[in-house]
């Protein structure tokens, strides 16, 4: 049990969703199911913080977002406070494997926390004075110039909201705006090609390293973490990637795909691991070296449990 990872989930909505996941482990969602099948009880849930918290040089946008910032601060949903709360909860994780995972605005939050950990490291147990300066920096959105030597951290951002706000300057969130990623960081950004929001343009990160993986799936926003055909494919990909990273899965909760009941009908084909990608290109018609579709290269899909699915019945 000591070698099992610590998993930090950032959820799309607020405390009501957190309570639902805590009390209902069988809920058909990515956080609940991964919590169910991974050999660890070291899981924590946090509210995801969205892009309404961002700052802008445009006076009109700043006036528009000001009431929202006041409301979030009054209700305890302020971005800086939430990220700080999550960062403090990672105290003493220096020698542990840590997985940060989030859906939608939670995916955005997971990226920001990874950025904070990369710059500051983890909080020092029993030494509040050494962490006080870092807490002030987080509240003021000021990152240190020297990166910490952080290892064994993985990030899974599921269909994160499209924003370049980040904690500091645009396109700098988690270092994805640069050509390289921090050493030891394993990042997977999972995007759905059928995003339906007007004017939505997903972040396409141009990276020369193989540390960053953008994987596209058929489906719309929300399919990446709710019960649907695309949800099954995303879940299979994440479980396989976790296994290849040393995370232990409870095999008795998996079953061969050929044993799936026929009543699934039209869902049978989408449940395949290597399903054929039939959707058009992403909304902005842009492709980069770091962006891969699951049918482009079979080697990009983890091989463990290739013919298995999670038993959701």
From TrEMBL:
It comes from the Eukaryota. Residues 40-129 form the T6SS Phospholipase effector Tle1-like catalytic domain. InterPro entries: Tle1-like_cat. This is T6SS Phospholipase effector Tle1-like catalytic domain-containing protein. It comes from Piloderma croceum (strain F 1598).
């Amino acid at each position: 049990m000591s070698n099992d990872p610590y998993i930090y989930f950032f959820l799309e909505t607020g405390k009501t969703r957190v309570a639902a996941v805590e009390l209902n482990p069988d809920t058909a969602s990515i956080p609940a199911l991964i919590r169910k099948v991974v050999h660890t009880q070291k899981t924590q849930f946090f509210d995801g913080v969205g892009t309404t918290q961002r700052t802008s040089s445009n006076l009109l946008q700043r006036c528009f977002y000001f009431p929202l910032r006041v409301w979030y601060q009054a209700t305890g949903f302020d971005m800086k406070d939430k990220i700080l709360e999550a960062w403090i909860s990672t105290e003493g994780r220096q020698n542990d494997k840590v997985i940060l995972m989030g859906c939608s605005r939670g995916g955005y939050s997971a990226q920001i926390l990874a950025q904070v950990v990369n710059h500051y490291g983890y909080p020092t147990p029993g030494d509040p004075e050494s962490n006080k300066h870092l807490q002030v920096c987080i509240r003021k959105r000021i990152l240190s110039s020297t990166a910490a030597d952080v290892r064994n951290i993985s990030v899974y951002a599921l269909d994160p909201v499209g924003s370049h706000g980040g904690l500091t300057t645009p396109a700098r969130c988690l270092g994805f705006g640069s050509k390289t990623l921090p050493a030891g960081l394993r990042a997977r950004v999972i995007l759905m090609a059928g995003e339906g929001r007007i004017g939505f343009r997903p972040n396409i990160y141009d990276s020369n390293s193989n540390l960053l993986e953008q994987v596209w799936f058929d489906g719309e926003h929300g399919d990446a973490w709710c019960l649907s055909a695309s949800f099954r494919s995303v879940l299979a990909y994440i479980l396989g990637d976790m296994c290849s990273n040393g995370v232990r899965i409870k095999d008795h909760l998996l079953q061969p795909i050929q044993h799936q009941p026929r009543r699934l009908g039209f869902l049978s084909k989408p449940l395949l691991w290597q399903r054929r990608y039939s959707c058009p290109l992403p909304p902005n018609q842009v492709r980069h070296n770091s962006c891969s579709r699951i049918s482009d290269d079979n080697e990009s899909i983890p091989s463990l449990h290739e013919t298995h699915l999670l038993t959701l019945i």
